[in-house]
Amino acid sequence: MEAIMRNMFQALGKSHSANKMAKRFGLRFGAARFVAGESIQQAIEAVRGLNSDGRLATLDHLGEFVFSEEEANESAEMCINTLEAIAASGVNSNLSLKMTSLGLDISKDLCLQNMRRILDCAKKHGNFVRIDMEDYEHCQITLDILHELRDEYDNVGTVIQAYLYRSEQDIRDLNGIHANLRLVKGAYKESPKVAFPEKKDVDDNYKKIIKQHLLNGNYAAIASHDEAVINEMKAFIRDMKISGDQFEFQMLYGIREDLQKQLVAEGYRVRAYVPYGIDWFGYFMRRLAERPANVWFVLKNFFK
Ligand code: FDA
């Protein structure tokens, strides 16, 4: 049953018509638990709230399907507006983005052009931009673009997904440019040809690549709500005397708030990933796919 629901949410999240329809409804069905709002003002207020209890943020202007150069450029403009709003408000947040929303599926050049505009703005404000990792189809090109951008910018990093067989080799290759990486288990539905089908293997590989990246001396954002992983990493960091400025914990907005606050109280750097915007549906469906138990929470909101 859980597998059926997982597949259904993953398919819905990818459906253009479902995404389009959801936009017309506004932030509904309990999505506000995971999405900070539809406007930049609401998102900045959410970040202010996180900052007030010691958490940092990374803002993501949601927007996944882009079919024209014009839409890609508009999406880049939204990223720039987000960086400008962060600077103007003085909140402590960096930016996360998805390159498909900047035209990656239209052309690599268009995407690079938009990335440079965004990174120039981030640089002007002394800020950092994280390129989220999307599905396997976009993995190699994302890494190629990161390598190209790193020749020009030091304020950009990406994400490595532990469910991919290739991730261990990618960590090794990225050591060459001392990449600042967010390490995650992986959120997309992938074929067993490219990704570990068993959760235990993903969890094992996850811990392995985090340790590998930290021991290489590179910055790691450990992005997980898995307490067993977090506890093992805390012990590893302590035993290996990894400096507090070489890593941070990251979690998603609205998930395991208790654990986020506990880590802050213990003195760790914690950053919440804060999505906002009218294109909330695909993101929301991925969160439900990760944890179908959340669907009861959605149903409760649906009938409210
Ligand atoms: P796991 O799925 O094993 O969950 C461990 C526990 O966490 C669960 O038992 C539950 O208690 C809690 N939990 C997890 N998901 C929950 C949910 N949706 N609702 C409520 N509780 C939940 N992926 C990707 O492919 N590309 C990316 O760029 C990113 N970026 C990213 C940024 C940040 C800050 C985070 C935290 C995660 C991502 N991800 C991602 C998603 C990631 O790949 C993964 O799908 C989720 O983090 C869930 O995996 P966990 O590591 O939390 O463990």
CATH class type of the largest domain: Alpha Beta
What is the general shape?
globular
* Record field, number of beta strands: 8
Rounded mean pLDDT score:
91
Distinct small molecules bound, one entry per kind: dihydroflavine-adenine dinucleotide
Instruction: Give me the side-by-side strand order of the main sheet.
Output: 1-2-3-4-5-6-7-8
Q: State which percent range the strand residues make up.
A: 5-15%
Q: What fold name stands as the CATH topology of the largest domain?
A: TIM Barrel
Structural class: alpha/beta
Helical content band: 40-55%
Q: Distance between termini?
A: 25 Å
CATH architecture of the largest domain: Alpha-Beta Barrel
Radius of gyration: 18 Å
Please report the number of helical segments.
Answer: 12
Count of separate structural domains: 2
Give the helices and strands as they follow along the chain.
HHHEHEHEHEHEHEHEHEHH
Topology at a glance:
Blueprint: H1 2-14, H2 16-25, H3 40-52, E1 56-61, H4 69-89, E2 93-97, H5 108-124, E3 129-131, H6 139-150, E4 156-161, H7 167-175, E5 181-184, H8 199-215, E6 220-223, H9 227-239, E7 247-252, H10 257-265, E8 270-276, H11 281-290, H12 294-302
Parallel strand pairs: 1-2, 1-8, 2-3, 3-4, 4-5, 5-6, 6-7, 7-8
Helix pairs in contact: 1-11, 4-5, 7-8, 8-9
Bound molecules: dihydroflavine-adenine dinucleotide.
Cofactor: FAD
Keywords: FAD, Flavoprotein, Nucleotide-binding, Oxidoreductase, Proline metabolism
Pfam families: Pro_dh
